[in-house]
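Posting for a labmate who doesn't have an account.
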Amino acid sequence: MTPEAARTADRSDGAGDGDARGGDNDGAPAPAPTGPGRVTVRGLTLGLGGGRRGGPASVEVVRDLDLDVAPGELVCLLGPSGCGKSSLLSALAGFLQASRGTIEVDGRRVTGPEPELGMVFQQTSLLPWRSIEENVAFGLKMRGAPARERRAAARDFLALVGLRGFERHYPAQLSGGMQQRAEIARALINQPRVIFMDEPFAALDAQTRFMMQELLLGVWERVGTTVVFVTHDIDEALFLGDRIFVMTSRPGRIREAIAVPFARPRSLELTTAAPFVALKRHCLDLVREETLRSIAAAAPAAAERVVSPGGRQAPPEAEPPSPPASRRGWTASPSA
């Protein structure tokens, strides 16, 4: 939801900020948990751009991709830059329409965003004019949940992500890591069957990022929802995931599905263990191969841009003529 739409929703809600006084108690109850979802993708092709007369053609970012995620599984999407990871995640969450193929959650086709599909972005999307509690409860508010119920739920989920005591603070008063915790709580409060996470910790420093990874695992183990997590960080993928899907260069497909064999719960010491390092080396080799493949594919196109349409090398531009003598700092002497 855009900030403008959220403001309109705020104004249209009769209770508005009167929630704290206990009003708006006659709405429908919040939905009960429905359990983790199974994600099934078949023959998915995604294109970006195009459609404008005289504009560039659509770029195919994903082609004929198949993917299966089991209920309650935490999987990571890994691959070279530009391979379509974020586009794939947007399509899975219903924000991007497929050119071909199908996306299903528990056998039901995904045609657009819905509360049972949660999304956490890399950049915070918290509403700056609402408190953290109001931000977390906003999804329940839009679904007509009673004020007392949604306040209680928001506080429970804020406590779950370690933000007890910050309910009345505003986003600008929180650090980046704390804002991302609030984003996770806001996604979880709707009891989604699947949560899609697009590099949510990429902007954080290394220490905060690892603490957020530990927090996410703790929350996931308690809540049990299915998680699809996009990352460029191989260590992060190995530390978090049950499986890692390594994607090819654009147009993206699944090159290899890697089962992560490490027992849970996982700790910092795991990241320096020999089996972890060996699997990291394998993932790094795969991503490097796909990156080099992408660079090699782009090289002929770059060469064509310096060749004339007739197939001959375009001649160098002619040098501009020398300026007249009077403009080179001297003038000819007048004749005697």
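Reply:
Got it, the structure tokens are right above this. The CA atoms of residues 41 and 103 lie 5 Å apart.
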